[in-house]
Amino acid sequence: MTVIRQQDFIDSIADALQFISYYHPADFIRALADAYRIEQSPAAKDAMAQILTNSRMCAAGHRPICQDTGIVVAFVRVGMQVRWEADLDVAQMVNAGVRQAYLNPDNVLRASIVADPAGSRKNTGDNTPAVVHVELMQGDKVEVRIAAKGGGSENKAVLKMLNPGDDIVEWVLQSVEGMGAGWCPPGMLGIGIGGTAEKAVLLAKEALMQPMDMHELKARGAANRLEEMRIELYDKVNALGIGAQGLGGLTTVLDVKILDYPTHAASKPVAIIPNCAATRHIHFELDGRGRAEFTPPTLADYPDVHWHPAADARRVNLDTITREQIAQWQPGETVLLSGKLLTGRDAAHKRIAQMLLRGEKLPEGVDFTDRFIYYVGPVDPVKGEVVGPAGPTTATRMDSFTEIMLSKTGLIGMVGKAERGKLAVETISKYGAVYLIAVGGAAYLVSKAIRAARVVAFADLGMEAIYEFEVEDMPVTVAVDARGRSVHDIGPKHWKQRIIELKVAG
Length: 506
Known about the structure:
- Helix content is 33%, strand content 24%.
- With 506 residues, it is an alpha/beta fold.
- It folds into two domains: 287 residues, no CATH class; 178 residues, Alpha-Beta Barrel (fumarase).
- The longest helix has 20 residues.
- It starts with a strand and ends with a helix.
């Protein structure tokens, strides 16, 4: 009988979470490198270069790939011949491992989990609790599949109870077009079909734990209907032209994974969960011989891609920027920001709006007049860093605050990721402001442009506090210009048509 010791299990969970925080799976690196080589969209290729460069930097520096270090999801399969030497139950042991990993002083990971989700939403401080699924199986081992799932991609999850005669492919394509860029493509789609509503969603999440093998599948050909559907969806989703970061391009998904389960004759539940460019998951097994061991990728696994800003990129001084200057910027243009940049995301925006509506002054040091705000919740710094990885969060969540921020504070620019909603774009145009995007999935690379950082307000909000960053050549792209033209509209439309032309020519 196999004996699994409590500390071996806890240490293995902690080691796995640290490992996936800075190492992309080798299959993801290969798939993204292949997509980079064939990409023809300059904007999308630049975004992929940033992601690949960031991945290599994180592997070398042992720092998080993305500032959103995720909500932990663990699938634990326990053999029925296993005996535990443990005082804690399985979920408690997983949470002990999460706590150990996220508070590791050598590589602090961002605590993103809030309790009382419908009320106070207070941060738990250590990223617990995890979402744990436990299953008993035959055998004498414990198998663990664990992931750290980013909020931006998780928020794009979709469930639909289709009618038995409805077309799954058609619905998936409509859903992916509606997702926009908030899930940080290129990545993977996990699809669950059948069972009940909750089973379909669980299948979609489990599908994301599988390795990327689309190129191998296409080379050998489909062996069943699900594999045929995988290939069909891969080709048709990429033909949408959404591209990396939603900028328009040839590759939106690197793979499509599908799991199914028998369902009621009257039902056809289908769920989609996308995985972002910060793909983080790993599978390990415990057999009683100690904690799990993990083999890191080698430098040979990474393509020879080293991102540098384009020579013709527009350099901007944030300390002297004017509305007249930003009015000249064009959608899709690369801009390098230098100077002082305030930050703020969901909780800070809510508090600012409440203060403004009550007629109160904003805290000292929070003056947005002719300034830019960066939607970010950074990782804590370690080993002399001024700030940890500090990539953008999804800007769409701040859309409801755009009117009050632009009309009441003097703000002229915003930096985040993904598209803005129609009303937000109209508001940006109304006030002659601009919206810029940084690359989601390049958080460590972005943080290297931050030369100084200090909390100026709302310290109690933790990672959602307002910081003032001093940046130098921080790379961003003009997503919405002062006239309300959006690259997330222009880019995919252009590349959808371009893909059709390429197919005809080919």
